[in-house]
Amino acid sequence: MPVARKFLLDCIVMLAVGLNYAGAAFAAEPHKAIHLKVGYASITGNRIPLWAAQDMEFFARKGLETELIFIASSSQGMPALLAGEIPIYSGSLETAAQAAAMGADLIIIASSEPTQYKLIVQPGIKSVADLKGKKVGIDRIGGASYYATRRMLEYVQIVGGGNQRVVAFRSGMVSAVASTVERFERVGIPYHALADAMEMGIRILGNSYITTRAFRDQNRNTVQRFITALVEGTQWTKNPKNRPAVLGIVGRRLRTDDPGVLDLNYRMYVDPLSPFPYTKLEDLRRNVTDLAESNPRLRDLNVAALVDNSFIQRVQQR
Q1: CB 67 within 8 A of CB 38
Q2: d(CA 40, CA 91)
Q3: Which residue among 84, 94, 232, 240 is the one 20 to 30 A from 159 at the CA level?
Q4: Do residues 62 and 225 touch, judged by C-beta distance below 8 A?
């Protein structure tokens, strides 16, 4: 055999052996998961899809090592997001809009269904006429629940005031508050729901998934994985056959085994779920218009530029 030909064959054999070893080494090295911190602002039923995506390993299956971090309020979570301590935050749209109006470069990548506010009144109040002249408690002027209260009272043609809510309601200091009913059910406070915001067409967005434009632009693959897992977790949650498992997740997270509380959370937060958690611009615009009454800067906020639904659209178009 000519020397040149033998040399060529030897090189081919060595290359094949080398590729086999490299392939084996690559296969033996597990794909490293992306660590992702996700903050969330409250331990309530509107976090169920997020909890399900974590507990049922939808995030893990998308190559994410997701760490859920409870941060008591959006006023604390937003600075952590802007400082880069948490790349994604599940919190108040109201706080995100206020920060964006002041120049924060934020983007909303998904939103929960509107908060199911009801006009909660003392058990003895059975009609709108009974409420006239009574004190109505609010959380704080300029907040989402404040505008929910105002719009419901305007709907039933009552002007209200006051500055306390559930605690004041329990003590009898106020006769009505705008709130979600599970807060009263959980601690056994007697109440009567006089009006329903959703039935009145009052849609207050209470929870959005927020990140910075810089993180989105530099980590589009990670954001897409997160949204894909969140959508899959939402759809798993929505499937009636998974109801027992969903109630188990809710019970563990809320630390309750009360069947009434679990069932209420399922009806309030799972039944209305949309399979694709888009941020609806019409709802956002109305909410920002309300908030602009106390913060004039919001009048100039480009609402459309604050929303990026493209990650959800890619999941839906698969």
Answers
A1: yes
A2: 6
A3: 94
A4: yes
Same domain, 54 and 171: no
Q: Both tokens of residue 265?
A: 């959370």
Domain of residue 100, residue span:
34-111+207-316
Amino acid at the residue 17: V
Q: How far apart are CA 318 and CA 312, in angstroms?
A: 10
How many helices (H) and strands (E) would you count in the chain?
A: 15, 9
We report the CATH number of the domain holding residue 302 as 3.40.190.10
Q: What are phi and psi of 195, to 5 degrees?
A: -150, 155
Give the number of other Cβ atoms within 10 Å of residue 149's Cβ: 26
pLDDT tens digit sequence for 148-184: 777 787 776 654 444 345 555 766 777 888 888 887 8
Q: Do 307 and 223 fall within a single domain?
A: yes
Residue with tokens 């002249």: 133
Q: Note the pTM of the prediction, 2 decimals.
A: 0.81
Q: For tokens 């530099």, name the residue.
A: 218
